[in-house]
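Researcher: Let's do a round of design. I'm pasting the structure tokens now; please hold your answer until I've finished.
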């Protein structure tokens, strides 16, 4: 007899397997991916009924290996938009962190020198920093060029991370025929 806890654990294992499969299949065409997901869910439920929940998922193998097999059947590489979003977010975080560290460094420098105000520009963003024994302040302003530069860098990071060139059709030249 299975307890509610065992059924919950089996459900969690099944959903975790399907989530890992979906993550591996993120670049696959959407309608086909949804159909494969539904088919896999039905197969898991059938295998669970046949051999039990503890052996059903190991028999299917790893979700990544299963996804690789489907990609091989597709016969062409696909972009991976989630990977691109993660890369763009990391690049955006690194840029924001560099702005902040540059501003805090200038505030610290002003504090060591006895206080004052400095107007700076770093990565196309205007910064005004104030520092001294009594306190510190930071003011920043974006301009259209700085916003466009940031968006271009983030779009480039997304394109590289998602391998978006894979969405373009490939050109295969025809082999030349030799005439006698």
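Researcher: That's everything. Go ahead.
Model: Designed sequence:
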């Amino acid at each position: 007899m299975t307890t509610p806890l065992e059924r919950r654990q089996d459900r969690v294992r099944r959903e975790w397997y399907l989530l890992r499969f979906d993550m591996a299949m993120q670049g696959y065409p959407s309608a086909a991916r949804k159909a494969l997901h539904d088919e896999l869910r039905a197969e898991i439920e059938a295998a669970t009924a046949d051999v039990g929940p503890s052996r059903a998922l190991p028999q299917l193998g790893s979700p990544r290996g299963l996804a690789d097999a489907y990609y091989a059947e597709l016969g062409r590489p696909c972009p991976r938009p989630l990977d691109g979003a993660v890369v763009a977010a990391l690049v955006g975080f690194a840029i924001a962190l560099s702005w902040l560290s540059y501003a805090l460094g200038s505030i610290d420098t002003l504090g060591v020198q006895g206080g004052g105000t400095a107007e700076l520009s770093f990565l196309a963003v205007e910064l005004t920093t104030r520092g001294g024994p009594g306190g510190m302040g930071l003011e920043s302003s974006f301009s259209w060029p700085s916003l466009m530069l940031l968006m271009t860098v983030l779009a480039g990071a997304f394109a590289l991370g998602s391998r978006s060139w894979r969405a373009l059709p490939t050109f295969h030249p025809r082999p030349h025929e030799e005439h006698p």
